[in-house]
Amino acid sequence: MSDRPLMPKATAVWLVDNTSLSFDQIAEFVGMHPLEVKGIADEDVAKGLKGVDPISNGQLTRTQIGEAEADPSSRLTLAESKYKLPQVKTKKTPRYTPVSKRQDKPDAIYWLLRNHPEMTDADVIKLIGTTKATISKIREREHWNSQNIKAVDPVTLGLCGQIELDFVVNRAANRKPRQPRKPPTTLKPIEDVAATTDAPSKVASADSESDTHPDQGLELQEPTDMKTPEGSEPGDSANSESEKTREDVPEVANSDNVETQNT
Fold it and tell me: How far is it, in rounded angstroms, from Cα 233 to Cα 246?
């Protein structure tokens, strides 16, 4: 069971007119802001609204009201119901505004735009029940009735409650700025992809050529560690050895011829 009366604003009107309770006591009982209850007493809010007796509805007793009037620090509480009512699940529906108050929406929107610029269009739409197109027209002074629009508090007009307005304003003031999103990664152009694929192939071909021809590009150098006699070149020793072998071969051949002749 809810701890608030069924018709809070109508109950507040009755308590203001028929009791000497303080604004804080009435506001805490019906779930409204004390300034809103003060507006009801000044006939600035809920003007022409008929009050509802909470005693006849079984929501309060005269004893509770008498004790609260005698002690301003005491608070009213709902009387226990004689019947157990099932819990009804409420569905989220668009905010309904009476036909008689719809003409006051532009004034409330203009007041919010001028006094609370930190509020977004979504906050104004949820609070008052308007459209984004109407908000943009009022902001840019393109509304068809922009000459007659005046800034008026939406609580005074009865389009929202003071608690709701304070909650939305505090939430908008404490809202953290959104971090910029990273740009999405896109596919590379075909030219860049072709260039990146050709580079490794060129490197691989260069490596294969160096493996097949390791001596290419290198100059032959003669060994400098070989010792040669003075006045001679390194190639002279090799030539002398080849000449000695040539001289030995004919002598062997001649000796063989002599032996055959003797026999």
Answer: 21
Q: Where are the alpha helices (DSSP H) in 19-157?
A: 23-30, 34-41, 62-70, 105-115, 121-128, 132-139, 154-157
Question: Does the CA dihedral 108-111-115-121 come out positive or negative?
Answer: positive
- Residues 10-66 have pLDDT tens digits of 999 999 999 999 999 999 999 999 999 999 999 888 788 889 999 988 889 899 999
Kindly list the domain boundaries of the chain, sorted by start residue. 8-70, 99-173
Residue type for position 235 = G
Q: Is the dihedral of CA 115, 121, 124, 127 positive or negative?
A: negative
**pLDDT 10s digits, 120-170:** 999 999 999 899 999 999 999 999 998 999 999 999 888 988 889 999 999
Q: What angle do CA 68, 71, 76 make, to 5 degrees?
A: 30
d(CA 221, CA 141): 93
Q: Does the predicted TM-score (pTM) go above 0.70?
A: no
